[in-house]
């Protein structure tokens, strides 16, 4: 499953290239609690087809009802929320707010006190959308700037992701290429993790030189390669939107791949294994590959968050949760780290008085 923004843009471009009327809605401001963050996008076609999301569903339903009626009737009206007339939506972008009053918040399913504002762009140019999609597919980070007076769009490469900016003249939103995941090993755990990653918008590549594992691989949407893992890491060129996860338990395959990944900008680098196995991995890297504790500081292991997982699907949930937390800049409590949680449980089992309310006693 591809990145949601790319999916929305690609679908919108297809509608417009076929000559169909459509609009692009972008969440530009929120107050209080809101179902979707600033920068979220949704596309709506004249026949009521919709892709993407700007809320939990109620606002989408209102936009669909309002604009499909307008497209069907073609009668003159304005675009403001609450206006009972209809017209074919066109012209420069317009702003609409939902949840300004308590009644509206309840009607549209917004949390108490929640308000959001959307920018609606009518009939975006298909050529500009195609150019943006091509750049994203090529792995480039792009800024899309919309001039509010007439809807004219400017596309420029971006050096780093930035927050959406809107002022009196224009809206500027950053679109990035897909997040990517490289898995070392094509075993059962990798299949579950790849499936979860695909549903979270990651493009997944799986590397395993062992034919017996590749032959039973059953996740068609993932790319499978057979070269040696360290060579694959070099060819993969991990960047800030990439993660590398070693899952084979075989040092000949995992170690060199992880070392190569640590030399990249990958936001997450980790290897499966018990606490003892991960300690042994670090010792090998220090002894045989001139690594130090400092150079291995980014290496994660045991990977995942502690949820008591035992089976491959449960372990995959644990690992995917940690990857998403790191991706989203969330610092997890230490007692959710696998090693820390298991150490604490063992300490509590051996000496019940050693832990008080989850904290080590002095």
UniProtKB/TrEMBL annotation:
UniProt protein name: XdhC family protein
Annotated XdhC- CoxI domain residues: 15-77
Domain annotation XdhC Rossmann: ranges: 181-323
InterPro entries: MoCofactor_Util/Proc (IPR052698), XdhC_CoxI (IPR003777), XdhC_Rossmann_dom (IPR027051)
Leader sequence residues: none
Lineage summary: Bacteria, Pseudomonadati, Pseudomonadota, Betaproteobacteria, Burkholderiales
One Pfam family matching this protein: XdhC_C
Coiled-coil ranges from the UniProt annotation: none
PANTHER family: ALDEHYDE OXIDOREDUCTASE MOLYBDENUM COFACTOR ASSEMBLY PROTEIN, MOLYBDENUM COFACTOR INSERTION CHAPERONE PAOD
